[in-house]
Amino acid sequence: MFKEIAMKITGTKERSWLPVCVILLLALQDSSQERVEGFTRGKVILTCRYNAMPTEEVTIFWRYKDDRNVYNIVSGKSDLTDQHRQFRDRTRIFPEEWAKGNFSLLLTDLKDSDSGSYSCFIPRMNIRHQVELSVQEKPTPEVGSKSSSMSIKGQNLILFLVLLLSPDLHFL
Ligand SMILES: *[C@@H]1O[C@H](CO)[C@@H](O)[C@H](O)[C@H]1NC(C)=O
Question: GO CC terms for this protein (predicted)?
Answer without folding.
Answer: external side of plasma membrane
